[in-house]
Amino acid sequence: MTDIEKRRRQLVKTGGALGIAGLAGCLGGVPGTGGNTTNVGMVYALGGKGDNSFNDMAFKGAQKTKKEMDVSLSEVEPGDASQFQTYQRKFASQKSPSFELICCIGFVQTDALKKTAKNFPKQNFMLVDSEVKRKNVSNFVFKEHQGSFQVGHLAGLLTTSDFSEGGGSTNGDKVVGFVGGKQNPLIKKFEAGFMAGAKHADSDIEVKSAYAGSWSDIQRGKEIALSMYDEGADVVYHAAGGTGNGVFKAAKQKSRYAIGVDSDQSKSAKSYADWIVASMVKHVDTAVYNSVKNVVNGNFEGGQTHSLGLGKDGVEAVIGQSFTGKIPKKITSKLEKSKQAIINGDISVPKDPKNV
To answer: What 3 state SS string does 239-278 have?
Structure first.
């Protein structure tokens, strides 16, 4: 059992009996008491920290605010969706000290936050990946389909090329794969964009898709990816949280390539850097940082929805650290061209795989 799993089990076991100070103590964060300190509560998405992906990007943004501003951070890592409202309410009802902002990470918190925000109208919240239309909620959503198009385009260009760098190589087949965590409209955006990008490179490319049904089942992620590699895939892209670590294991085992998500996973999962050819970076860190900064500066943007895509540096395709300067220029130039076409509106990226 990892330290993160042990900590989360302790949190789940004790959460019902503890106030926020106690919960924060379990995770190493204690609210500040200084008059100028901005107290921020963080309710992570399922899977928690240590996923090398979505939650860790939120944590990265929070840590940056602590370094640059007088901010105190208290965190909770729910083990089940039924706990979201409980933890949101605990932060919102805390009075000594009160929390100037509560960050709710992940679309699964939407239903809980609709109730919590209504019951605590004077409490400021921020929500990532969804929208709650209330004046005390600042929403941040991303154009994941656009970034996924870019990495799909890269995968398509690679699978139609003779490419051998890092720890892998292409096999001559025109096949790529996508592994999702749980099926929902959000992850379908990743799948649709990836499929469209691959087809943009070559309409004859076969795109295999499968869902693991979990955000934290590494073994299942590995099994799915191994099957795809065995069926000819050169590159597999995941949007599956911690489950994606299994995709990296499979890529290494088969000497093929993987594409990470949310963070530059060639750095956050650096033991697989020779197989992670790129990542679709989703700047959740920027969303968290900007929302906290706004509150510190007295400019909370409640009732607004910020939509971040390629043009606003919300998402981007980042080449893996072991492949920097090693992707042929004829490929990188095509990627830059398609990126600009998306920004200019010349390429419309679908959000549903049915429309690819």
So the answer is: ECHHHHHHHHHHHHHHCCEEEEEECCHHHHCHHHCCCEEE
